[in-house]
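idk why but the lab printer keeps eating my pages so im just putting this in chat instead. protein + 3,4-dihydroxyphenylalanine:
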Amino acid sequence: MSDAATRPFGGLEAAFQAALAQATTAQALEAVRIKFLGRKSEVAAALKGLGALPADQRAEVGKRANQLKTAFEARLAEQQAALATAPARAALDVTLPGTALAQGRLHPVTRTMDAILACFVPLGFEIIEGPEAEYEYYNFDRLNIPRDHPSREHFDTFFLEAPSPQPAKGRLLLRSHTSPVQIRVMERRKPPLRILVPGKVFRPDALDPSHSFMFHQVEGLVVDDRTSFADLKGVLEQFLRALFGEDTQARFRPHFFPFTEPSAEVDIACRVCRGTGCSTCGQKGWLEIMGCGMVHPNVLKGVGYDWQRVQGFAFGMGVERIAMLRHGVKDIRLFFENDVRFLEQF
Ligand code: DAH
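predcted complex ->
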């Protein structure tokens, strides 16, 4: 190529190359295209002005301008493709603050369950679980709740439609309490026993602020040859103080459960009004916390124990109710709606 032909574009290629190297975004690339190939660019002006050139230069300048135009277009296209496949590199700003990761946490019912279990483990209790789909035999019969006994009505129950794999053990149901696990353990083990049974239970209750058709219980059972009602009181009072604080007052109120005799309900002094009466305790000054009693001789006989030589106590409590009292939660349904605004508070 002659000097005359290259001179009009002297340094243009180097300037384009330098500008292209700087262009790391789509906008910058477009600015380079406008500058070097746009209507007001040197190349465009040269092509437009070809007619005014002397004939001997016209062909050379025209050819050179077209070469540059094609080469610039090709390099711009390459650079555009390179940017498109590596967008992150261009977009990464290491000085921006990071995005905080939301931290998960244990559900308040799980935490209360753990706190309850932790009170008993140092006393030598062993944690055992049992099935949620249960036979009538364990949920009722062996717990001294005969088929025609009116107390069955207190334990409204979800019966399962699946046929019972062991018809001799009655129909299948969703257990209405954790007490059947007492029977399952006593059937296969000899005293001494000291067990704790956490788990889900089910009752066909309509949902309201204090009822849910599924909730959690913790059951306890101690059997040996000398455990007395005094031991029951001592263990449960110590448990309630460990869970609710050293100054917690408890009272044992006579009650009826088919599987214990004598039976009691345990109340603690209302934590809100300290016993004087308020809306949390229904003006009673006391909050019912759990059921308990000495294991009924019929229950001991039913599992083949010598009821004249062994004795023991049992207790059962609702975990959601205790979680509500610990945290001042007024509606049990909040535990199951899984709204993070609620769960984040624990
Ligand atoms: N199973 C009872 C219920 O669900 C709670 C209970 C009361 C369990 C007394 C016990 C007990 O082991 O001794 O209402």
